[in-house]
Design goal:
It is built from two helices and four strands. By secondary structure, it is of the alpha+beta class. It has one domain (11-60). It has a two-stranded antiparallel ribbon. The chain has a two-stranded antiparallel sheet with strand order 3-4. The longest helix is centred in the middle third of the chain and has 7 residues, at 23-29.
Length: 61
């Protein structure tokens, strides 16, 4: 992980030491990686391998 690539608030570490990307970073990245990210703003559901409509998508229409 290149620390120069990230801004404050882009991720946090869990008590177990895992890195969790925030919605702020995922939106700036600009696409869904389909990994089932905890804060996915794109509505991806790893269990069904599909996208759910999100409140943000509703506001865009």
């Amino acid at each position: 992980m290149n620390p120069d690539k990230f801004k404050e608030g882009d991720y946090y570490k869990t008590e177990e030491g895992f890195i969790v990307f925030t919605e702020q970073y995922l939106l700036r990245r600009g696409y869904c990686c389909r990994s089932g990210c905890r804060h996915c703003p794109y509505g991806y559901d790893k269990n069904t391998d599909s996208f759910k409509k999100t409140k943000k998508q509703d506001k865009k229409q």
